[in-house]
Every structure is written in structure tokens, then in C-alpha cells.
Amino acid sequence: MGVSEISSSHAHILLVLLFALVGVAVGTRHQLGQPSREALSQQEADRVIRLPGQPLVDFRQYAGYVTVNESHGRALFYWFFEATEEPEKKPLLLWLNGEIKDHLQLSAAANLLFVESPVGVGFSYTNTSHDIKELGDTITGHYVPQLAEAIFDNNKNTSKEDYINFKGFMIGNALMDDETDQKGLIDYAWDHAVISDQLYEDLKRECNFSKDNLSDGCNTALSQYFDVYNYIDMYSLYTPMCVDNSSSSSRQLQVIQGTAPRLFSKFEGWHKRPAGYDPCLSTYTEEYMNRQDVQEALHANVTKIPYTWTHCSGDTDGRIPVTATRYTLRKLGLKTIEEWSRWYTNNKQRWFVAVRCCGGDEVMAEAGRGDSGQWTVRWS
Fold this sequence. Notes:
Order of helices and strands: HHEEEEHEHHHHEEHHHEEEH
CATH class of the largest domain: Alpha Beta
Shape: globular
Strand order of the largest sheet: 1-2-5-3
CATH architecture of the largest domain: 3-Layer(aba) Sandwich
GO molecular function: serine-type carboxypeptidase activity
Structural class: alpha/beta
CATH topology of the largest domain: Rossmann fold
């Protein structure tokens, strides 16, 4: 089964989940009619009453599982936050990957629904195996547009009660096209002085990313390319290493196996990265999400599988770099609706019209603090 088939199926799974969770978003507000007693009971069972370490809050939050395929034992984990102000009047924002930095403004502007997807990511699980093992954050470049298409198509033949007032979607750092993604990886690494001029010339001479099979010379050059990332975090080039007592700068973390460009995935360097960020943010998150009291509060890990929950991480992202995104957009040949321009908020220039990042999936860096909520509200 290919990527397009997997992502199309995943889009329909997410559509089922979205319909199921709309009731959580508005069930207590009666916007879709009187919910059943069973639905209200399930909703209350998923309510997060007290999260360890979290201060008292004045908004409701829910977490738990929605079964999307009972025969295969597949369930997706979700975490839903009502908007802090007038949630019944606010839109629903489905967030599938990455961290929101400016959460205070965003939580006031929308009801937030986080879903760990696809099955096998985070607390989402399946009781059956599959022959495709490399699915992760970058595949959103396929299943998010396909989810939008599925909603659009279903809206054509649905009742008023089930109609989804869909406004649009955003994707960031997504795998979209193998050829342009792979070329962008190499050009970005050279442009940011990650690889030498000689290695860059070798890669350009030996590798033809429009073909399925690589030459021996290209394989050799790619091995040297990945060797460089033994010392640099591909997902965030300029962040420091974690050197606390529980880890060291040489510690290697297994990457959640994102969908690698097919020609790169055989290289070991693709599937690992140095520890890093803040400088130990991933360690803190990993330890917290693996606490039993936290998992119980979130109604998570109901299978009691002893796996480790890890935090995964872009204009400093070498994995899906902005260079590759530009190549892909150019290849799509779409009509430009609004030209590139400088971005201003409160009469202050905000550089390039883009989401500022501090790594692959951490949306909104410190430099952009205070702007992400405005940006999202304007977009919605």
C-alpha cells in the first residue's frame, strides 16, 4: 500500500473522528440539538478534572479515545479545550501536529482539538499490525489536504445537522513531493553551511532525485551527508544540546519514524537525531507524559502498553526545510492569490509572512511571541 492510499484512508479516519468529537465541542451547548444521555455520560467520563501540576483553570478540557475501527482495535487519542471566552460562539480548530507557542491568545479565539495521529503516534493505538511502518508528522502534507477534501465532499450530501462549516486548513513543514523535498534538503544544508562545498558538488553530480534508484556514488555522498547530522540536530540546527545528569550531548534519540523521502529512508542517519531544545525540553515532556498519574488524569494509555512517550520536533529545520517547500510550491504551479509581502502587527514589522519556528514542529518562536494568536484569528 502506498503513501497516497495510506493518507487517503487516514483522512477518512480523521473525518469519522471529527464528527464524533464535534459533539464534545458543542454537546453541552445544545447547538446540534439535545445530546443523548449516553453521549453526555461519555463526555463527562472524558472530562479532565485535575491535571497534575496544572494550576486551577476556568475552562473545560476533555481527553480520551475515539474508536475509529473497532474490528482492528484502532483508537485515536484526543485532547479538547473549550475556548476560555464564550466557547459556544468560537470556531473549532483541529490541531494535528506540533506545539502551539502562543496558546493563551489562541485558546481565547477558538476551541482547540488536538488529535494524536496517525494510529501508533503518542497514546493512539491499534491492536493489529501493518506493513507500513514509517508514518509521522511530515505525512500531514498528504492527509490534511485529503481530510479537507473529504469534508468538502461529504458536505455535499449531508444533513444540516451534520454539515461541517469548514473554513480552511494550514500545514507546516510537510512532506509534499519526494523530488523537491530531497533536493531541498541538500540545498538547504549547503546554504546553511552544514555541508562542505565539495560534498554539495558530489551530491549534485551523483544524485538524480527524480529516479527511484540511486547510484553507488550517490549512496556514498548521502552517507557523508547524514554523518554530519551526528553532531547537529537536523530538526533544529541552532539549538543547544541537553547535558543534564540524565543525558549527555552525545545522547541519540530515535526519531518518531516520519515518512522519509523514499531514497533517503535506508540511511541510518535519517532515523536518529541528537537530543536538544531548551536545552532539555524533550526530556521534561517525556518524563511528564510517562507519569502514571498524568496518564490517568488524561484517560490515556488504556492498553497499559509499556512504551515510552517521546516529544518530537522551521526555518531552522533541516528535515523539511523552507527550501524544499519553495521548490514544491513552484512545481505545483498554482495561481498566486496574494503576493509575498512584509507582515505588520501593531505597526511593527514581523519579517517574512510566515509562521516563525524554532524547530520542525514548534510553531511560533520567542521572537514572534504575542503575534500567533492575531495571525490565526486573522486567518480564520
